[in-house]
Amino acid sequence: MTDFSSLPDLALRTLGGSVIAASDESFEEKENLINPWAPKFSPETFGAKGQEYDGWETARRRPDENGHLGHDWALVRLGLPGVIRGVVIDTAWFKGNYPPHASVEACAAGGYPSPAELEDAAWTEIVPKSALQGDAAHEFKVDVERRFTHVRLNMFPDGGIARLRVHGEVVPDPRLLSGLTIDLAALENGARVTECSNMFYSSPDNMLFPGSARNQAEGWETARRRDRNNDWAIVRLAAPGEITLAEFDTTNLKFNAPAAVTLSGRNSSGQWRELLPKTHLQPDTRHRIRLDSDAEVTHVRVDIHPDGGLARLRLWGSLTSAGETLLTSRYTALTA
Q: Which of 11, 90, 197, 249 could covalently link to 163 via disulfide, CB atoms 3.0 to 4.6 Å apart?
């Protein structure tokens, strides 16, 4: 995989993405494009429209009276607007019915526009018309330093695509965060896990996802330790801020929850300080703990003792003036 594959999938349905329109979905629904799981396939599962696929599939196009064939397209609203670093177009299981070519465009639109309102948007081509193969994941690096809110997948002329992944860096609108109590560790606000000791079962970024984890796989879980050390993860906050309430959620972790947790914070000078001493945790429980600290922090380190996992990590607080300035300047630079 390329270096952008570790970045969040900005279009993922779990993160709020939606396929809001498509030119055609005669065989398989457009919504399948952004499902979080890997594409599945069961041979000889025929419905009223033919073999069933876990993807988006359109009807066969025929030239019109002028010989024009046209092409199919799907319009996706990103769940997390941001800078796109790479796109994956996956034709998994589509072997005789994949499109020979595809391209991707992106635009930035304020508010919540309808598909019709996006027709006249300023679209930028981020993946030029490129050849595709059947039953393969195609990775395309994107080098456009702008914040986007929507993408349009074009396939030429028709066929099936299993998944569209849009990896990038979240760029929140500071007007929705300034002056409010927010989750400074939320992925949707721009936070990221930058380092961790172990991610054997699942990614630590899962802790920062919105909503509640439905099962163990939707949180962070480490392998069993056989030494005297403990597991940990470092989170870069959405922006410099002051944390007033920490939430350590072990929901669904019944026999693999950590015995205890500690929390440390790092300031802009790189100095670490304790925010929460070693605190006992219970399995399958949401723990909410008020922090007695007004220190500005840019990163936190959460240590779980000795191992196990967390379903979610929430760090409620507010941006400092430095944090508001940082978010505003980045947003302005990427939307100008």
A: 90
